[in-house]
TrEMBL record:
This is Amino acid permease. Gene3D superfamilies: Amino acid/polyamine transporter I. It is found in: Cell membrane. Pfam families: AA_permease_2. The chain crosses the membrane at residues 12-33, 45-65, 86-105, 125-142, 151-168, 188-208, 220-242, 270-290, 316-335, 341-362, 383-403, 409-427. Its main location: membrane.
Amino acid sequence: MSQSTKKTNLSLFSLVCLAIGLTIGGGIFILTSVLTKDLGATLPYFYLLASVPMFFIIFPVAVLGRYFPTNGGIYFYPSRLVSPRFAFLVTWIFLTTASFGQVPLFTLACSEILFQIFPFGSKEIWAFSILTVFFLLNVLGLKPVLFVQNLLVSVLVFLLGYSIFRFADPRAIPQISPDSFPSFVSGLKTISILCFTFFGSNAIIELGKESGKPKHLLKAFLWAFPIVVLLYFSFSFAVSTLGPGDPTLPPSDYLFHLIRSRLTQVEYKLFLLGGPLLAVVTSLNGIFLIQTKSFICLIEDGWFPFLNNERKSPSYLKIFTIIYILSTLGLYLQWNLETLATYSTVGWFFVVLSQLFSLFVAKKILKENGYFPKLFFRKSITFVTILGFIFALLLTGILLFRLNEDRKLLGLIIVSGFGFFYSYLISKAKDWEPKEQSERKQEILKLYLESEDAND
């Protein structure tokens, strides 16, 4: 059995930890710091409001993974249920911009935190060391990666809970009234920003074939999502009890100055290690894993013929080495990392939109073959999926609008253009054609039947 299809039989706990680690990133600390200065005690309620559209977006994707478990779902679902060439293009956008932008940005964020605690060497050396550690960890295999992820996420949740308990002051809970909230337009803008902090848990469907029971993919989301919502609300609520900070500080430093004033020096260092650092590290670890699964899926489908060997699946070592080299190059160049990370988020939304659309196509295929799983065919699932598609479309539009306002949309068009041009060249040079529609349908049916057997 090849490495790309070998099952690890992930436990529900591992999937929950992976989902939490992928969701809680540095954004919660940066955005809470930036927004609490203006929103104050109303911020926790905006986190709650932002969780609603994200639930509608992610839940149907988890349902798709539950009934059609596979690896590399970023590419696989749209390639089988929408269009192989479209699936390649959106996966190309995500993988290239994540490698050159998101991963280097995360490693630099980790190095910034570590440098505050251990001020020796340089931030660049710290960043390169972090990247190398995760490369070596992933090369060892999925089990060591998940063991580390489970451990780090458990510590993250515990220390976040401890920090919330430590600096929250029940006697200083601020009073809020309708007048405390910003205008309707400002409120919608805030919600749209905070929505992105809930993204990530949908990525666990990338490990569908590794799960012992595919229904655990859906259960993991239903466990992880409320835990994340509770942590976000509790953390921002605890921050609101700290009182006003120094108004002269830049927004990014506002929160950390407030927390530093409440904790001892040792506690503050523990907060940095167990909060911002672990949040970014667990996201980084998860991104490495996701990139690899999708990359392998692209290779096995023939998009990179120079890496494909029909007699055996591509090795993890080769794939991780390629991703490591690309990310190291991105770290060295440091070319508009935040912009590239935003492109990666746009690519991720393109993927989610195609996955939500895929759910309707999958339902049609099951219906044509006389399969009617109860959950999948509920009217409520259809309603949630439609709402999720609308919300995802709106958020994608907001991202694209901001990129256009900042005059950064051209870069995304160039990245997309390279992907389109490459796919055209491969199709012509190798006389390569995607699998026939009937063959793709059979793959989907096979996944469904395998999932029913596994769940039994």
